Every structure is written in structure tokens, then in C-alpha cells.
Amino acid sequence: MHQRDRVSDAVVRRLPGYYRHLRELEAQGVLRLSSRALGERMGLTASQIRQDMNCFGGFGQQGYGYYVPNLKRRIGEILGVDTPHHMVIVGAGNIGRAVASYPTFRKEGFVVDALFDVDPALIGQVLQGVEVWPAGELRNYLAEHAVDIVVIATPADSARAVLDTAAEAGVRAVWNFAPVDLTAPDKMELGNVHLSDSLMALSFRMHERALMDEGGSGWRR
Amino acid sequence: MHQRDRVSDAVVRRLPGYYRHLRELEAQGVLRLSSRALGERMGLTASQIRQDMNCFGGFGQQGYGYYVPNLKRRIGEILGVDTPHHMVIVGAGNIGRAVASYPTFRKEGFVVDALFDVDPALIGQVLQGVEVWPAGELRNYLAEHAVDIVVIATPADSARAVLDTAAEAGVRAVWNFAPVDLTAPDKMELGNVHLSDSLMALSFRMHERALMDEGGSGWRR
């Protein structure tokens, strides 16, 4: 498998949504579903769904559709939710705590083993069931524990140093919430979450709709 | 401007990134930039950048490139960051507080006027400089104040009721962090943030890379 065989970002962005909807369908006792019905639920076309599934070999049967439990299990395997992931969170502020207590992570196999912070008042405390370690211990901790994902929930100016420490320890993935664009070294996967991007996209749609309601000529000037 | 003239999600997803990078470039004193240089910085092709800009009339000049201050200002206008937005946050837990204290929102014009919570111990407190109101007052508050965006940071089972209250009050946008897929009424823009989607996408890339490193035949079976 070569670099060029990486699945496109657009497909990867949709995959977790498939998993969420299939989990809900399974919980509702739905066993079988056409690509059209799944598409209506997700706001996608049937053909887009078939194309997405074909990235992984396709799982439907002509004239039958998808068997929900199998498709959900297979997409879960593809996403890696069938194997446990050990995470540590650097930064025990609001974002760090929000990640530590996010309700669905644990049941999807993402387990937070430790929080790290520089604040002496927090060190040794147990927040959301997770112990807070001194930030200075991160390097040693990573050397001694198997950690799959380091979550960066620090201020912007500390984020790069945390990424470097994780990289030196051979951690395979970093999930960054600090409001800065980090660049991953070659051997690491990096997910940057910019909350303000999501807010600006919402703001954009509000203004676009206002233009539509005014019956104006749109964005082009 | 008709529904079909809405700018595609793919473009809207990239716009805040343009704004972020242009703001950094401006702060560094860069005045002029080619679409190729901007593309290299953002991991996009020059042609993709020109296509994105053409959705809004295009702002470059052949052979000159983009004038950074103008392009940043124009993209800011398109995103609506040049006009103040008033927000309230329902749910004063970790996610609500993280949004209330997110460092860049205020300077981009997104101002949090109030937090709402059901916990009597929190009501009346000032968290991140924002007063906590009783959740039961949300309806009255929205009737009496101009609120542009309602942020839902409640548990999943309360999210729908908050959305309905916002819709009845004529609020134009809801930004939902509860781990549930909400559907917006016709007159409202809705942004669903699923933190677990971002984590699963990262997990997917980790496993994809492991397959690549093993030299296997990839995802197709």
C-alpha cells in the first residue's frame, strides 16, 4: 500500500458518521438497509455511499442492500474502534477535562490513562476519574507506558514542545486542540481541531442565508 | 441567490483556514503572496485556491498574486468576523466553559453574553467572566436579548429541547456539541461538532498507516 493509496480526506471525514448512524440503526433493531435509505438519513446520495464503501471493497449486495450489524462491525474495524487505544491528555483545563469526560470515547475503546498539567494545585488530583501528573513527567511516562494517542490541550505556545516530546517517544498519533497549526513529523498522524473554524463556518452560513433572503446576487461582486 | 447557489461544504470547510493563515501572514508583515505559496503553506494546489477564491469573485491579479491585507479583510467579511456575534452557551460543564474561554473567539467578534445551567450550585457564578443563568430562563432571555448563536453544551438528552427553544425564539444559528445528530428547522443554520468523529478519523489514519508499513494490500479485501 503506497502513500497514493491513502483514502481521501473526504471519505475519511464521512466514515465516523456512517459508524454513528449504523450504531443507532442497530440499537433500533434495523437489520437491513438500502444505500438509498442510509443516504437519506445521512444527507448523501446512494451513489456516494456505494462509492465510499467501494474504497474498502464494498459490503452491499445488489438488490439486498446492507446487513446493518456486519456493516457496522466492518466500519468499526476500519476505524479501529474494535481495538483499545490508550490516550494521555496534556493540559487539564476545560478542553482537557472535556475530552477526559467525553461520554462515548470509553465505550469506543479510547481510554484516557493520565492527565498532565503544570499547575501544582492540580497535580495529584483525580479529575473525571483520571489522575493529574506533573507536565515535566510526560517524557518519562511515555517511555514507560504504551500510549497510542497524545492529546494536546495546552495553550498555543506550549503545543509544539508537547508534539516534539511525543514524537521523540515514538507516539504514533497526536490530537491537537491548541489554537495553532502543528505539522507532524513523518512517522506520526496528526489531527488538528480548530474550534474557531467550525464557528466561522457557521457564521459564514448565517451570512450566506441572509444574502439569499435579501434576494441579492450572492457572494460574487 | 437560490439554494443551489450555496457555496459547497468543501469550500466552506477551507475558508476559516485561509483566514487563519492570512492573519498569520499579515502579522508577519507579508504583503503579497502567490496562490502557489499560499497553497504550499496550506497543503492545497494553486489551482484549488484559485477555484475557491472564484466562488467569491476571485481576488488575485494575474502575475501579482494576492495582496494579503485585502484578501484577509475580504475573507473576514465573507466569514462574518467583521461584525459582532452575540452567543449564549447552554450547559456550563467542561465543554461550555471551554467555549466560553476559547482564546480567539472574542477577538474575532464572537462574544459570549451568558451561560445557562440546571445546577443550582453554578447559577449566579461568574465563569470565565460570564454569568451563569438558570436554564429555565433561557426562553425569556432569548425573548429579551439579541442572540445570534446558541451553543448547546448539554448532555445528549437535553439537546433537542434547547434547539426547539432557540428555534421558537427565532435564533438564526445553533452550534451543537452534544453527542447527538440534531436536525435544524428550515430557518436555522446548525453546526454539529462531533469530537468523537475527529478522534475516529485519527484512529483510521493510524491503522491505515500500519497497513502501509506492513506493505499489505490495503483496505480492500
UniProtKB/TrEMBL annotation, chains A, B:
Protein's name in the database: Redox-sensing transcriptional repressor Rex
DNA-binding segment(s): 17-56
Record-linked Gene3D superfamilies: NAD(P)-binding Rossmann-like Domain, Winged helix-like DNA-binding domain superfamily/Winged helix DNA-binding domain
Species lineage: Bacteria, Bacillati, Bacillota, Clostridia, Candidatus Avichristensenella
PANTHER family in the record: REDOX-SENSING TRANSCRIPTIONAL REPRESSOR REX (PTHR35786), REDOX-SENSING TRANSCRIPTIONAL REPRESSOR REX 1 (PTHR35786:SF1)
Similarity field: Belongs to the transcriptional regulatory Rex family.
SMART domains: CoA_binding
Subcellular location: Cytoplasm
Record flagged with keyword rRNA processing: no
Alphabetical list of Pfam families matching this protein: CoA_binding (PF02629), Put_DNA-bind_N (PF06971)
GO cellular component entries: cytoplasm
Keyword annotations from UniProtKB, A to Z: Cytoplasm, DNA-binding, NAD, Repressor, Transcription, Transcription regulation
Gene Ontology molecular function terms on file: DNA binding; DNA-binding transcription factor activity
Transcription regulation found in the keyword field: yes
Top-level taxon: Bacteria
Protein function: Modulates transcription in response to changes in cellular NADH/NAD(+) redox state.
UniProt subunit comment: Homodimer.
Any coiled-coil regions, as ranges: none
Sequence positions that bind NAD(+): 91-96
Domain CoA-binding: 80-181
Swiss-Prot/TrEMBL GO biological process terms: negative regulation of DNA-templated transcription; response to redox state
Organism expressing this protein natively: Candidatus Avichristensenella intestinipullorum
